[in-house]
Amino acid sequence: MLGKRSIDAACVAAILVAVLLTSAFAWAGSLGLIEADRDDAYLDLLFESGRVHHIDIQIDDWDAFLASAPAEVYTPCSVAVDGEELSDVGLRAKGNNSLSHLSARGLTRYSLKIEFDHYRDGQTYHGLDKLSLDAAFQDNSYLKTYLAFDMMRFMGVPTPATSFVQVSVNGEAWGLYLAIEEPEDAFAERVWGAGRGLLYKPDYRSLDDENADVALRYLGDDPASYPGIFERARIETSPHDEERLIEALRLLDAGDRASIEAAVDVEEVLRYFAVQTFVVNLDSYLGRTGHNYLLYEEDGRISLAPWDYNLAFGTYALGRPELPDDATTAVNLPIDTPAATEVLARRPLFSKLMAHEAYRLAYHDNLSYLAAEYVERGRLQQTLQDAAELIAPYVEADATRYITYEEFLQGVNTLEAFCLLRAESVRGQLEGNIPCTNEGQLSAPDALVDASSIRIEDLGELSDLD
Known about the structure:
Layout: H1 2-30, E1 53-58, H2 62-68, E2 75-81, E3 84-94, H3 97-104, E4 111-115, E5 130-134, H4 144-154, E6 162-169, E7 172-181, H5 185-192, E8 198-200, H6 227-230, H7 239-254, H8 257-263, H9 266-278, E9 293-298, E10 301-306, H10 327-331, H11 341-344, H12 348-354, H13 357-376, H14 379-396, H15 405-430, H16 438-443
Parallel strand pairs: 1-6
Antiparallel strand pairs: 1-2, 2-3, 3-4, 4-5, 5-7, 6-7, 8-9, 9-10
Helix pairs in contact: 7-8, 9-13, 13-15, 14-15
GO molecular function: kinase activity
Protein name: CotH kinase family protein
Keywords: Kinase, Transferase
């Protein structure tokens, strides 16, 4: 009898210890002392490749939402992702110039943001807190952002996940979109881990402003001088976080190799710029606006990640007013001066690196690798072919598309032709057969790759919306 009582007492004690330990772990987790295992199942669900997914938006008054869309205000709704329903979700339109252009033309195919935890704290879609749905504005191929992101991943640059999604509203087909993992907590923790640094999405306040902070120029030690960065933080920052980033910009401004190495993840940034230059994206850090990039800082070192490529592949001329809108000029964008002279002078993260031969040669090596391994070995063609075949039936049935189905097919063909000619030009510039600066190309126009066989307009332009 005594033995049985002792065993019972031991069992009760063990149960109490287990309960106390469970409570202690829960308490520690709530305080952030112990990191819970991350749920990244959304990568194998919504972002599973090889198929078109489905999102149905259930909303009380869709017409009212569309009427108020330009204000970019969240509206409550429910969404079913591949049949799995989540309620109390936030929905709003997204875009800069696209919103005004669409509204002015009476069009309602807006890009969208879905925020799973907007109205219900902690709610996620299998770990994903926020999602963008890209409407292919000025992208006849539907594939510009998809392809540019694939190149970034190929080059080892941290890149949001993507997949194609057929969107319906209250059960009625709306259109084909590109789903993009929004660069917030889930993305940051997936890429950089629980002990991550800080993530920003810098943006200009007005095209009429200098926006020197967005250009990553050092403007002194006052955080108030950097509203385009700190007001666009994707993760809550502290004064110490701001000090670290400002110090990195000060070191970058100093420009010597030791300072740059202390302030910049040089290898990653050079890989980023190699893709950025290859895809001729001037609606970017290397354009006059200087935006459409993600800025990551950890332990005082900064790097860039990609965002928004609907105006890449030569379809955005702002920032190079001296360039005509023709394919030959875009295909031969000089790799060493991929922006107007006055713009490069105000983009220290590119110009300070290129001032050092070792960095410039490493950047050239990355361009060579991208041209050889991604384009010349056929990954480009296979990626475009697979994606185009996958989405073609959905594009053909897309009730809200901006273009005709035939223009979509032409857009895909033109995108492939552009990239093949771009690789030829990049290769020629690296081998010295084509000048790699704007000044050199102006003096030797006959050396350029002839791209007169394609029309840059077939990749997408505003007139397609009229």
